[in-house]
């Protein structure tokens, strides 16, 4: 499959002591403190939320179209295959709320299937979301669709005039796997509170454990798009904290940690590196790593247990014929 994105910029953003860096707005001080604390940790770490600057979001879109990256197209296949049963379990009409809605492409399919009356998309990238919600309204003129800017891990405030009807929280894409289990449980509890109305519920995508070679290829594709996506986090961090990482000097590593049932992504230093930022810095030995992402692959019973602990009940799961991916519905 052709990958249409231009080659990544390998040069880092200018360091803060260069003149052109003065024009780059840094992240707020508390965010910089958090990012730097991660960089100074042993081993160093960067939160995966920093993958998604503009270029990172484009690279992620490209990942979802890769032949090796099965989750997106498998989820679509599950939704198509079990559309009728899913609509029956969820119920028609009501308010669909999608945390991390992004392009709203999946919401369009679901809202059409359910005949939803209202949609609220929530995303940290409010401008991008506004455009996506406008396209959703154009595609489904009968749908009252709104955009709410915000971090989905904080409490989500819905617009006051969204009706108090039955609510479905829709969290596709297996993004729950990018949270460590305690954080995933906290997020599910928050979703439970958000959906809590008579007959409220959650419809969520879960990536299941599978053959190691399939997993490995999905996170280390032949065209190197996931590697670009991983390295791009350093360019983003450079802009946020004024550091001078050279993304081209870091190697993408992805492997399945069987004990934890998760894919881990890391960046390994190609040689000794000295990285500086205003007020500090850190040296990295050759091959030393920065941990950038976990992607948990939950066996279905383990995930259903997590849902129960979050307060959900009567879970129902639908999978593809290979048993690679599940869409799960549960009631509040
Ligand atoms: C967004 N999330 C579900 C993706 C995943 O599969 O964990 C992020 C990703 N990382 C590398 N490839 C895709």
Overview of the molecule:
The chain has 332 residues and is an alpha/beta fold. Helix content is 35%, strand content 24%. It has 10 helices and 13 strands. It has helices at 29-40, 54-64, 70-81, 83-90, 105-114, 126-139, 181-195, 212-219, 225-241, 300-309; strands at 44-45, 95-99, 118-123, 144-149, 167-171, 201-207, 250-257, 262-269, 273-277, 280-284, 289-296, 313-319, 325-331. Strands 4-3-2-5-6-13-12 form a 7-stranded mixed β-sheet, sandwiched between helices. The chain has a 4-stranded mixed β-sheet with strand order 1-11-8-7. A two-stranded antiparallel ribbon has the order 9-10. Helix 7 links the parallel strand 5 (167-171) and strand 6 (201-207). The protein starts with 28 loop residues before the first helix and ends with a strand. Residues 1-22 have low confidence and may be disordered. The site of N,N-dimethyl-L-histidine (AVI) has 11 residues, from strand 11.
